[in-house]
Design a protein that fits this description.
By secondary structure, the protein is of the alpha+beta class. The protein is 25% helix and 36% strand. The protein has 10 helices and 25 strands. A 6-stranded antiparallel sheet has the order 16-12-13-15-10-17, with no helix packed on it. Strands 6, 7, 21, 22 and 23 form a 5-stranded mixed sheet that branches. A 4-stranded parallel sheet has the order 1-2-3-4. The chain is flat. It starts with a strand and ends in a 9-residue tail after the last strand.
């Protein structure tokens, strides 16, 4: 019997396979199933494929090694083979298609009646309903009374204080505090700026009027020479002083001819008063044509007095502003390290970033102003190093059965003194000791009792310096909470007088 071999593509669906079987026009068709399968992959698909082949009068079989496909095809009555040779050699046995049973139609009226059955509590009497509701409310209230209340107990244990004085040396060369008094310090910088002003107390002279004189010009050539207005003659002793003629004239054209012209200094002040025969340097273009001289002294130059800063004004203003900036730098360092120990004598101005006086030295003014921006540095001992030193020093003085609860290191004596490589300073270590308190045991001791009973129990069981303070929330609740986790324990320290 003729058998058609039909390869199946991975994208083939049920309609594509039916078309391929129809185009084969053979009584038997062998479907070569791809290894990764195709769109036909459910039991219903294989049943429909079998029915399509039956409608075409073609007997079909599958070639695949996938167990799942073999089961699905066998359930639809389609023969399955592992190889092509086995399919051509063996007989094809057709199995009837399994038709699923039809489910019995359910009674919808019965289902509707079951869905509207009354709840169990609807059969209870009103009294029983109220009883069940009351029990539920009571259970919720009991749970709230057990969980919600809270309390806070503040205890003040009886303490013992000790203080020890230790002579320390603070230096940046040390790496860690030691029991013999070595304290490491580090340099901290702070940049501050400020402005200051003050009224001046000095006087200075301001140029007021220029000097005048008569200049004699002598011709050095045999040609007439024109002396224009504004011809300049410079002083021999002070080259910066220049006189200019206020009138013009012409020298006769012979050697030795002379003419006298009035002149005025171009600058002002007493410095323009020049002695006789001092104004002799003629400026171009008459330098090599004429000689100049002042037979009489130049006079009339005058200064007027004006207020100006004195050297003491500069010095005192700068000293006052630097003292203010040093205080600002110290305050800035203390704010940055509030718990650190600042070695005050080490505070020094490291560098001036800006230093401007207005007016500059020698200039007249009624008010002297100074703008100063300076970087300071100071030696600081950190809080952690102070605590470490205090623990090293106070540890041998710990009372038996007590533990450290408070430690303070404060300066005492005359303050830090400079020594080689650092600063020597006497510090006092003050410590408070108290017996240990077990918070879990205290919670178990006080839970479920009244505040009065709790105070009595705690004062009897613990060494307290004062009665405990109890705060409940809500405040109207009469008893302490039952849950230990709802009871918080706090401890405050009131040191007793020191016992050295």
């Amino acid at each position: 019997m003729k058998t058609a071999l039909i390869p199946v593509d991975p994208l083939d669906d049920l309609a594509a396979l039916a078309d391929k079987i129809a185009w084969a026009k053979a009584p038997r068709a062998l479907l070569l199933w791809p290894p990764k399968g195709c769109e036909v992959e459910s039991a219903l698909d294989f049943v429909r494929l079998r029915r399509a082949a039956d409608a075409l009068g073609t007997q079909i079989a599958l070639i695949t090694r996938q167990r799942r496909l073999q089961r699905l095809a066998a359930s639809a009555g389609i023969p399955v083979f592992s190889t092509r040779q086995a399919a051509l050699r063996k007989a094809w046995r057709w199995r009837p298609v399994r038709v699923p049973r039809r489910r019995h139609r359910r009674d919808l009226n019965a289902l509707q009646a079951a869905a509207h059955r009354p709840y169990p509590w609807e059969n209870l009497s009103p009294a029983r309903r109220w009883g069940v509701f009351s029990l539920g409310v009571l259970a919720v209230l009991l749970l709230a009374a057990f969980v919600l209340p809270g309390a806070e107990i503040t205890l003040t244990p009886r303490t013992t204080t000790r203080h020890v004085d230790i002579h320390t040396v603070i230096s940046p060369a040390y790496a860690a505090p030691t029991a013999n008094g070595h304290l490491p310090g580090r340099w901290v910088t702070a940049t501050v700026s400020g402005n200051a002003s003050r009224l001046v107390s000095g006087r200075t002279a301001l140029p007021d009027r220029p000097a005048i004189t008569m200049l004699t010009f002598t011709n050095l050539t045999s040609q007439p020479v024109v002396i224009p207005r504004g011809a300049r003659v410079r002083s021999q002793s002070r080259r910066a002083i220049v006189f200019a003629t206020t009138e013009a004239d012409t020298l006769p054209g012979r050697v030795g001819a002379q003419v006298r012209l009035p002149a005025r200094a171009l600058s002002r002040g007493e410095v323009t008063n020049r002695p006789p025969h001092d104004l002799r340097l003629v400026e171009p273009p008459l330098t090599f044509a004429v000689l100049a001289d002042n037979p009489a002294s130049a006079h009339g130059g005058r200064d007027r007095p004006a207020p100006a800063p004195s050297p003491d004004d500069y010095r005192e203003l700068e000293a006052a502003l630097r003292a203010d900036l040093a205080a600002q730098a110290l305050s800035k360092v203390q704010q940055q390290f509030p718990h650190a120990l600042v070695v005050l004598p080490s505070l020094k101005a490291e560098t001036d970033l800006e230093r401007t006086f207005d007016p500059p030295d020698g200039q007249p003014a009624n008010i002297l102003r100074l703008t100063l921006r300076t970087r300071y540095r100071v030696l600081v001992v950190s809080h952690d190093d102070l605590q470490a030193l205090g623990q090293l020093v106070i540890q041998p003085h710990t009372p038996p059965g007590q533990h450290l609860v408070d430690l303070v290191v404060v300066p005492t004596g005359a303050g830090p003194q400079p020594v080689e490589g650092g600063y020597a300073w006497t510090l006092r270590v003050q410590a408070a000791f108290a017996p240990p308190l077990n918070a879990a045991a205290i919670q178990r001791l006080v839970r479920g009792h009244t505040p009065a009973a709790v105070r009595a129990r705690l004062q009897h069981a613990l060494p307290l310096a004062s009665p405990p303070h109890i705060r409940r929330f809500p405040s109207w609740w009469p008893l302490m909470p039952w849950l230990p986790m709802r009871i918080r324990i706090h401890t405050t320290i009131h040191p007793s007088p020191p016992d050295t």
